[in-house]
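Hey L., structure's done. Input below.
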Amino acid sequence: MLELSPDKLDLDDKKTWDLICSGRTKGIFQLETPLGRSYAKKIQPRSIEELSDLITVVRPGCLEAKLEDGKTITHHYIERKHGREEVTFFHPSLEEILKPTYGMLCYQEQAIEIVKKVGGFTLEESESFRKAVGKKLADEMAKNKKLFLEKAITTGVVNEEEAVEIFSWIEKSQRYSFNKSHGVAYAMGGYVSAYLKAHYPLEFFTAWLKHSDEKMKTYQEIGDLINEAKFFDIEIQPPNLIKSENNFAIVDGKIYYGLANIKGLGKTAISKIRMAMVGHLDSWVDFLLNVGYDNYSSIKALASVGALPFKLSRTHQLFDLDIINKLSGKELAWCKLNQANDLGVMIENLAKSGVPSKIRLDKLKDLSYTYIVPPYSLTDDVDWISRTERDLLGLSLTCNQVDSRNTMQANCSCLEFSKSKQTNVVLAVTLNKVKEFTIKAGKNKGQKMCFLTISDGTAEIDGTMFGEAFGTYGSILEEGINVLVIGVRSKKDSGLIINKVIEI
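Output:
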């Protein structure tokens, strides 16, 4: 869609760095997971080198590697970067090497520089050491340790005791250290994708949605991307048999949901429908007879998500589709030759035509009566529309379950919360995801907490429920229920802290 050269992008683009630091990193290479989004806000990178650091310290090794004080490499990096912890170096000789990462040994290249500077390793010895570190070869590391301690005495940069301590760091770093060459390459990939998202969000989201079928959980991916797009004021239109293409596409400045992306449909089915519907869009009954009957399951899916170009309710369309589907081939042929604008009148005329057998005549009379007195309301229900769209599209595009509830007490929408600085909020939302955790460290170790993903149709946001609040309301937290969420904005990261939940 765009002609851009990645190697010519401005690497100091404020809009791009602002986006990364905001944590809105869905679709950003290496940072699109909840972990990546969270730590992007915590670390606030403003250069490729800092972005490389971010990608490195959110890897499992750094997140889990604890130092003598019980804190992780990641924790120390963040605290030191933001001046909340003093940056110290074990020995002055290490300052130049470790200064970029605030005194923390994060990269394999840093370990190589240390053995060269402190241990006097040659290029050949450094290469052997690199292989030992990168491949975590215990025997080779033991040989390199012996060589390092012997040569460190010769260089005289540190004493023997200090040399032992320094190499012990390097040995421990084997568990978590990362290639800086990889980190910087990943950071460039992340920056390019963030630049596109910041400057060309319409094209960015369309491209990502086009390839959502390459994800293991395709419809979760679609839902996540569309919810994210709302923060960028991008309008996603529901599938439309006339305007939509097979895949997601930009039409009149909006993204239209792809017809072949509807669950249960595909390009072959859509192609068959497009060929059959030529000349049969003037009336609903004509469409049913010539397109609906032979493509029952596909038309049912299209009707369920409101993709058909007729003014009847979705429930009414599905009801009529089921009526037509009960006709025999012979009866269908007669109806095509003797169409009526009213489906009920046509079935009555069919019963009088002499075409049906005696057995079929009784069934047609029952069908006619069912059409006159439907067994259920043909008016669309908000909850049903929302559930059906979530099942077939990955999310509800035209309404939200909470739309049918009493939301008078709400003082803020999810989108407003994300874009404003409002502190105390009451949100009327649907619980989309509920994940319970046990705190593993710190003063609240052992306590239960919960991460919630909530939405109200305007956007989807994450919230956190801690300790006492979770103990009180945890039992009612089920995915799919509609609730009032009462909470406050976190002073630490501007996220939502949920204190109370009321089912509505």
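The chain has three domains: 6-173, 228-372, 401-503. DSSP finds 23 helices and eight strands in the chain.

-- N.
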